[in-house]
Amino acid sequence: MAELQHLVVGVILLASFSTGYGLRCYECKESASKYGGCAEPFKSTKIPAKDCPDSPDQACFKRVTVHSEGQHSVAMYERGCVSQNALNIPVGCVAKDQLTLGTLATCLCSTAECNSAESVTSAHFVMLGLLALSFIKQGAVLVRL
User: Fold this and answer.
1) Residues 120, 93: contact at Cβ < 8 Å?
2) Which of 1, 2, 6, 42 is most buried as measured by Cβ atoms within 10 A of its Cβ?
3) How far is CA 97 from the centre of its chain?
4) pTM for this structure?
5) What residue range is the signal peptide (predicted)?
């Protein structure tokens, strides 16, 4: 009788576990000029982590892009869940020359809430260089006027 009870308890425990993948990622999008926690330095206390859809190819991502707003270049930070197959890039970071125009870097990771860390350090140097170049060009235009 005790063996049957153990078996029933074991089956109930196994049935209570989800068969899903359970990946959670921080999800946000904002301009670096309007800091609310999504840009760097990232503030996980301000940004909620969300459950990703149950799929074996889900990953967390962090993307840094630069857009022109008038005469200024503005960095945009985006974090969330994504299908690795949809992006067609491996886990890790891919720099601008391998992605679409305006994108400095896209990073993928596959552990819970892994898109919070500053894993785009090299992209920050690229971004700073592009922003500096943009300001230098603007300054050169202003000097000529």
Assistant:
1) yes
2) 42
3) 18
4) 0.64
5) 1-22
